[in-house]
Amino acid sequence: MEVAVIKTIGELIQDTRRASNITLTQLSELSGIPKGTISRIENDEVKRPQFSTVHPLAKALNIPLETLIDYYVEIERRSDSLLHILHTTIQHKSNNELIQKVATKYLESCNEDSYHLTEKLYQNIGSIEDNTIKLLLYNLIIEHSRSHGMMPYIAKGMYQRYLIERNDFSKLKETYYSGKYILHYADFLPQQERIELYYKLGIHSLNLRLYSESIDHSKKVLEYGESFYKVNALGVLRDAHFALGEYEESELYSLQYKQFDYPYIRENAILMEAFINSKKGNIEQSINQLLLFLKSCSNDSVISATNQLLRLYLQQNNLEGAKNVLESSTINPSILNTSNPLILSRYADYLQIKGEYYLAVGDYEACINYMVEGASYYSKVNARVKEKLCRIIKTAFTHGDIL
């Protein structure tokens, strides 16, 4: 016996209604769609019924949304209707394959220019909460734009993808290099996004301890004149030069940075002054500055100040001073800003330094525990060299190699 193949939306609605023993009147009451409209749809008098009209009928008849959308992807040509169907598909958390199918069909609509279609889809992605779906659609825009030679949307799609992917701290190095690749298309980005890209790459490379690259990216930000990003780029330049041991350059950028009157800038400037004093050999002055600073600084600065103070005390073999710092420490991992890899990295440093303190006082069990915890936090930000160092120390103690 041959099974009849349903070819139209009308046949789908009619056959399902009859199989369910539901009358036109009952379906009208269940769906809120007029009986006459349903009849015209079932009899194919409406060749391309609006999705917004058929969807309530399908819900009332328990027709899976995926089945209905599959039908519409085959017959619908109007871009506005396909965009509406795409929204519905996303709202109902349909599978990614179906979402991609609808979005692809939308971009292929022949009633609008490819640029306009791509721009509308690009603008709509911003309101989507699910990052997996956002990445799927940005990737689709990139692929579609490559095949149509639309350079601005290749650039914009890659930039938005980078902003999402860079939040996976376990892949900081991989996402950094994918972000750097966008620089080949930077001229196609709007100026504001171009500035943001250079700044974010500057921060990203600073987190990875790629200090020379961080300097190069941050200097690009300065080329665009006054902006919020310029202020923060000066701070990045100061920190990157400091990390490279280029203290004169660091001081120069610190002076420029201090000219901007924001509370967090004043705090950062005081902290950096203490750091530079320690590098100049003014150890006691630096220690006093840090002790005073810790009495009033914000949570974001506590870790950096504590780490530096502990380092200085351990260098002096002042174990009593280090003990006092640890006992009075207000560092609380439960309130760490886990959305900032720099904070996580500094907390990992804190745990490692704490382990070094317990090594110095002969408490090997505590040393091992803090080294293991430090390695765990380093792994969160892909700091493999430091993670490995912590694990080597832990292994050495476990096997008795150091004892």
From TrEMBL:
Pfam families: HTH_26. The keyword Transmembrane does not apply. Transmembrane segments: none annotated. Residues 13-68 form the HTH cro/C1-type domain. Keywords: DNA-binding. One of its GO terms (cellular component) is cytosol. One of its GO terms (molecular function) is DNA binding. PANTHER family: HTH-TYPE TRANSCRIPTIONAL REGULATOR (PTHR46797), METHYLPHOSPHONATE SYNTHASE (PTHR46797:SF1). This is DNA-binding protein.
